[in-house]
Amino acid sequence: MVGNNELLQRCLDSAYRYLSYRPRSEAEIRQCLKRRGFDSEIAEKAIAKLKEQNLIDDVAFAQFWKSNRLSFKPKSRRLIVKELKDKKIAPEVIEQVTQDIDDEANAYKLGSSRMHTLGELNYLDFYRRLSSYLSYRGFSYAVIRQTLSRLWEEKKQISNQISL
Fold first, then answer.
1. What pLDDT is stored for residue 163 in this prediction?
2. What pTM was estimated for this model as a whole?
């Protein structure tokens, strides 16, 4: 028979290993421990211990997730909010963390990064390809339309300067 302390230590070791890859939300840790067969009482004790050690913090996790998404795989505020909801982050934490996301600036940055592959296209192909790319990243139609017109104007200005 395994003692409670030994079971708790196994549960903690499992959680430490899971946390070693990247920060996790409390719900992700709980789900992982459940999948590994730990009963809820031991899992809750382990989660309390991890909180004491500041290894579980949903606000810090949400901040990490947002900055990671905006740096490496830019997405719209709406899509980041959905991902955080899927991670079982509290709505007030999500609102606090995502309130400063600027979709227009992110869509422009993302669209600008694609200009090298879209530079020779006519307007319809440019519009179709870039709008589907930005749509896939979760941006609204209004933001996509504004970004496309801005990038198309910049593309025309660059083309005019080159032809002079």
1. 63
2. 0.82
